[in-house]
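Deliverable D5.2: sample structural annotation.
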Amino acid sequence: MPHATEQFGYLAGQDRDRLDDINHALRDPNVDALWCLRGGYGMIRILPGIDYEALDATPKPIIGYSDITALHAAVQRKCRLITYHGPTAREAMTEFSRDSFLRAVVEQADSCGAAPNAREISHGRAEGRLVGGNLAVLASLCGTSFAPDLTDGILILEDIGEAVYRIDRMLQQLMLSGALNGCKAIVFGECVKCPDDAGGGGRPFDSVLGEIAEELGVPCLAGVPIGHIDEQWTIPLGAMATLDTRERRLTVTSYNS
């Protein structure tokens, strides 16, 4: 789009220009999908001006992760359409990532599967709608009209550069806001550069996550291939899925949102 390479301080251009680019893409019948170049901060600033009616009238895939979670959440809330938490357009995809991406975006098949290296935090099996994305962004949307409905959802989470005490604080914010009421399961991807000991006495990440799962009484898996990593699943947010922690498996079962 015309303003894709612009910069305005810590933003990728002026808000009005970025918004114009998105709305033009949503309205243009020759544009098949919106594939974000990166997940940098700024999306949350333009959510009110996005033409959700155009997207609802002519649905098209929206792809990206990290701060693009704000757009995923807004579309889920306003349109109830499936969007794709997956690699950004500037990344060179590994064979693993490309395979999952094609299965999700092109074939609408199961884009996940077994994660043998994942950690079972809380045992169980659950079925629900895939929801979530970047934890910090989800926490920042609490109390807004763009916060996604997590009820009956399998909550997908990932983050980067957050000490465990901040992960704890953001999870508690979601709990105290009531956002996690009715959540069926938690699947945490990779928390990249999230030290246990920042800010004083450390606590294990899995322990903090386990407290939330225990309080909710839901199954929980951590360390699945989601997030700021080279080999990642593309997650069709809004699709139906099942989680089996004993098998360490997340299975997409239906693309009916």
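Annotation notes: The chain has seven helices and twelve strands. The two ends are 29 Å apart (CA to CA).
The annotation will be released with the project's public dataset once the embargo ends.
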